[in-house]
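Problem 12. The chain below contains 451 residues. Write out its predicted structure in token notation.
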Amino acid sequence: MSFPRVPVSGPGVKRSGPGMLMLLVLAGCMDMPDVTKFRYGSAQRPDAVAIEDTNEMQTAADAAETRSAIIDDLLTRRSILPPAGPYAEVSRAVIAASSGATEAELRVARLRAEAKSQNWLPQVGPVVSLTSLGDVATKLLIEQVLFDNGARKAERAHAAADVEVAAVSLSEALNARVHEGLSHYIKAQRAQEQAALADRAVARMSGYGQIMLKRVNGGLSDMSEQRVIDQKIAEMQAVLDADRQLAAQSMAELQALAQQPLTHLSGLQEVQPDQGQPEPLSVLLARGEGARTKAAARMERAQHLPGLTASGNWTKDDGLVGGLDLGLGKMLGFGTGATLEAIASTDEVVDRQMAEAADTASRKIVALQSELQRLSAKQGQGAGVLAQTEASLAMFTEQYKLGRRPLMELVGIYESFAQMEREQAALKYDIALTRLQIAALRGQLVDGDAL
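Solution.
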């Protein structure tokens, strides 16, 4: 539905054309109080963004007229990794080798938000038509939305939420990348230590094998005992080879991820224990996606309601002819009522989705914390049992030398000790991996202001 166009052409209209344009601009200011959530300088060129922007997260925050709670939250997060040492070097290497895809997505989202931030201004465009007489008629069309039921406000909110989602995705991607690199490093360190223990076990079991061989040659033992020891030696050698292969594979994967050799690094480092905060990144992502979904619902709802638009045609001959248009963005149909009801239910759905995301993240962290407690308890108990087993092995060795214990019994005791020593050595690495996994979920492997 449209109001009749009111011609405003006349002797003085051509001279007052710019004034009419100014009226349209001022009319657009009716929607201006809720200017964009993110505003960017007009001097920023899209083709120079990749060179000028050194910190995408901080740039998005600095450009925001209304501060984003999600981005501020991301910026305040601090890494639990030590500032120096192998962990820091691995982190820097894998971040430097990142392809930058998520950074580019955040950059694009910011540019979209910049474009939407100007949607309250009038739209101007040329119109060219060919008349029946073969003449080309040109005119300038100017349109300004006066009332749109919050459609353009929702567009700006949608674009701002896009920036927030892209920012959380950037944090998730870099934290996941650092976690992957550190996991390869820690697994390589675990395999190297276990390989050293296996190498020592093979050497000692081979010594027992030499003693048994002399006993067999001297008629004190039979070949069955020799075969048992040879089999144990072969099993330990297989474990040693597997450990060495796993260590080499983990370092190769780390090198491929970091795109530089890191074989000179060694050792574990202590990291800060989990403090129960901040919120997991998945919860922030759900919050940003929820805000975007709600904004999209408001945009769709506005299309089903009448809006008012002022427009004007500027031609060389007729001057400026303006009018008001009242219409709907979408045609009404039999399903319009159900559509509006579905849109009205969007907020409830989004709230439930955010609650579900928070519950899922909480359960993951609780499970990891329980696993961490189990590993720590096992490490403490295992240390005591290992010390007792080592003492028993030393006593059996002395008794064997005095002829009070058979060699096969000593072999069995040592095999148990070697296996226990191997499992105990792996626990500290499993604890480190679990702590890093919790930190990755909370986004605490990379400083927020360094993203």
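Discussion. The first strand starts at residue 6 and ends at 7. Students who got a different answer should revisit the alignment rule from Section 12.3.
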